[in-house]
Amino acid sequence: LNHTGSGFAAATDLILDVQEGGASKLSVRADGATTVANTLTVTTGGAAITGNSTVTGTLTVTAASSLTLGTSSSAAGAIIFKNASNANTLTIQSGVTSASYSLTLPTAAGSAGNVLTTDGAGVLSFAPAKSSAATFNDTTPAAFADNDTTELFDDATKPNITTTSTTDLVLVSVHAYGLASNTTADAFLAARIVFAVGSDPSCSTSTQVGLPMIGGFTTTTTHPWQVSGSFLHTPGSAGNVRYTVCTSAAATGTATDTAEAVTVNLVLLGP
């Protein structure tokens, strides 16, 4: 169809109107706006729309297909969603990208509280939120010793937190305090923290986090003391990471000194 010359009073006048039983099924206005009243299916060759088109049914594009919105370096494309309750809309559009890239949607819906993450190559997936924290307190810890093998935090439940990536970072904070109670006049207190993934750590064999925590120096019984330290730790594995607090051979004269409490705070910071 090709119309030339005058004859249309307004851009909204119809130049084509295909009807069935008096109901319009396909219409084209003078300004090029096209309305399809049912399903529009594009199978081969593609379709280029430079004006406004309204599909009141379903738009289906088959075979290996893509939908391009906007014009490069000229006009931004966007998808606008309306809802059935009010006039508010939701718009999804691209930012000004420094390079072209693709995003692949997750293969499953994920679980409640999950967040959307990327593998750095555009593949998206749902994963637990990285920000989590936990506090563990042992109010009946074991007595100190001048060695690397005695476990101070001897509760059955070890301080633990679950990582989801090999690059996850954990903030580990330890604080122990008490009163000097041994019979040695001078005592120098120190402790260590060790970890394991998927099992309880051992003071004898598990990997130490950071350096020994050097605490107070006491010169007589009843002197107060404390040992504390904070570490940024990358466990290097995804899973349940468990920690415990151990004595240190860096200590001197601490035999029978017992803490009133040993507290471990863990914060998952993410990669």
Please give a structural write-up.
- By secondary structure, this protein is mainly beta.
- It contains no helices and 19 strands.
- It has strands at residues 14-20, 23-29, 34-36, 40-42, 53-55, 59-61, 78-82, 89-93, 114-118, 124-128, 132-138, 160-163, 169-179, 187-197, 207-208, 213-218, 224-233, 239-247, 259-270.
- The strands form six sheets. Strands 12, 14, 15, 16 and 18 form a five-stranded antiparallel β-sheet that branches. The chain has a four-stranded mixed β-sheet with strand order 1-2-3-5, with no helix packed on it.
- A hairpin with a 5-residue loop joins strand 9 and strand 10.
- It starts with 13 loop residues before the first strand and ends with a strand.
- The model has no long low-confidence stretch (mean pLDDT 84).
Q: How is this fold's topology laid out?
A:
Elements: E1 14-20, E2 23-29, E3 34-36, E4 40-42, E5 53-55, E6 59-61, E7 78-82, E8 89-93, E9 114-118, E10 124-128, E11 132-138, E12 160-163, E13 169-179, E14 187-197, E15 207-208, E16 213-218, E17 224-233, E18 239-247, E19 259-270
